Amino acid sequence: MIKILLSGANGRMGKAISHLVAETEAAEILCGVDINTESTEGFPVYASFDAVQETPDVIIDFSNPANFEALMGYALAKKLPVVVATTGLKKEQKEMLEKAAADIPVFFSANMSLGVNLICELAKKAARFLGEGFDIEIVERHHNQKLDAPSGTALAIADAINEELTPPAHYVYDRHSVRKKRDPGEIGIHAVRGGTIVGDHTVIFAGNNEVIELHHSANSREIFANGAVKAAMFMAGKKPGFYSMRDLIDPT
Length: 252
Hints:
By secondary structure, the protein is α/β, with parallel strands linked by helices. The protein has 7 helices and 12 strands.
């Protein structure tokens, strides 16, 4: 049985993961870390990693970028595999993940949904096939409690598309202060916040007289929880290295 330390245990995603793991015999939540130390799911929740007494097999992190340094310090000190699913990481923090992968197994994905990762691959293929004649825009919609904008998933989709573009496009997040025509060398990224939208992402390829759209809609946080738990079970016992959804989907 895989023993999990859940960082962000009392958050929305932490609760979803706890409920999902409770239904499987292959894994258990050994303990959690959260600023809210209320324990309602049958395992202890600590205010910091320093207070953790148990010995987990793997860490799942669905918390906040502010906790990143403490998370990675603990993972490196204990030589534990870590699944980082927190969004809104800075460039320096992502670079720290890649550096840590030399010493511990690191799994990172801006989105734990299998469907979203398929959208990334399809968007790359569309960009490669359509060429320069299409303007690319990404629209993401999330609930009104989400802190970061644009979403990490929207940026991941843009980054995936940019791998196929020569020269690479630059990202534009806001056009209201600039009065000029759209630059063909840009990818527009737009954030919508409202209600209880779990997560919608649309990639728009707008050409002359035709528009192609790729769309993914998440109706429940369970799809992200399911991906994170699968990643944790995949990572337990792995050698140091940097892993992603592509490794989970196609481990060969």
